[in-house]
Amino acid sequence: GKDGYRHYMEKELHEHPVAIGQTLQRITDPAAKTIALPELPFNPADVPRVTITACGSAFYAGMVGRYWLESLARMPVEIDVASEMRYREAPQPNKGVALLISQSGETADTLGVLRSLKKEGQSIVSVLNVEHSTMGRESDVVLGMVAGPEISVASTKAFTAQLSVLAALSIEFARARGTIDQAQEEKLTASLLDLPSKAAEVFTRVEDIQAMARVVAEARDVLYLGRGICTPIAYEGALKLKEISYIHAEAYAAGELKHGPISLIDRTVPVVAIAPSTILFEKTLSNLQEAKARGGRILAFTDAEGAKKLKGVAEVIVTLPDVDAFVAPILYAIPVQILAYEVALLKGTDVDQPRNLAKSVTVE
Ligand code: F6R
């Protein structure tokens, strides 16, 4: 049941801390502050490329994973949505690894890519919530998220659980490839293990998120901006808003604003910024100032340091707990999803069963 929550989505949003915590419990050694994944059938040092494929929110988790694998493990990464990857006829490298991400393990396009990349000789690693699924059976290695059942059509806790697995995998690859030392591994792992308590703290900011939701709920179009590893979180925010509140939203890497979308901006098109002070902040800030100068209403997710600098620029600021830049995309995903939920409540939509959507897309 819903345990007294109004919707499954609300319940599942509150399960973020537990989903992250339980997932990490399986794949870390908390005492040693090291990563302890199941054994991989290849040596990451010999892998020439990882090919990441998924759909929807799981694809955005994969985009974050690309930043981690590239920057921490110096691992070349190819990524696309499954419906495109399936028909691209892209060349696959010898000894390559295919990384599939799926909550359900049944998504038709992702499964299609799994099968074709397996034929191309790639090792198949899947990040799944439902481990006893078709994808689970057909993979060489399953990295399980421990998010528990997700009933709401919109994915919530599975997203942060996916990110937790991808973060751990990136640390593991970095260790094997010799791109981080033990002290760095311990520091990165500690910042992951700290996440459940930081995630719980996000819920003390709900009133500020509601203030933001009142602005968003009046809009017909909303722009989400992020930079670097927070760009996929902007995509996730825009997808969730469209999906459950039926308000049109688009996400951009903030640096792209002046290459087109800035012409959309006026008082009626709010700009939601994913802007932790630790990630290319000054650059994002200057993009937000440009948007404000064109009459845009700026709504920002940031931390205490960022909030100081956003004063006078942003109309609503949600100040989140301080976290290491490494885990910021995981933490910031939570308030971004809560925002979509709060807007949907104001709009009175069917939050758990948005129109035209199914939980698991088993047809192409
Ligand atoms: C968005 C959402 C969808 C799924 C996508 C992939 O809130 O739920 O975009 O993320 O359909 O589903 P799985 O992860 O089951 O492959």
Automatic annotation (TrEMBL):
Keywords: Aminotransferase, Cytoplasm, Glutamine amidotransferase, Repeat, Transferase
Reaction(s) this enzyme catalyzes, per UniProt: D-fructose 6-phosphate + L-glutamine = D-glucosamine 6-phosphate + L-glutamate
Cell compartment(s), UniProt: Cytoplasm
One of the record's GO cellular component terms: cytosol
Keyword Repeat attached: yes
Annotated signal sequence range: none
Primary role: Catalyzes the first step in hexosamine metabolism, converting fructose-6P into glucosamine-6P using glutamine as a nitrogen source.
Description of how the protein assembles with itself and partners: Homodimer.
Entry protein name: Glutamine--fructose-6-phosphate aminotransferase [isomerizing]
Gene, per the UniProt record: glmS
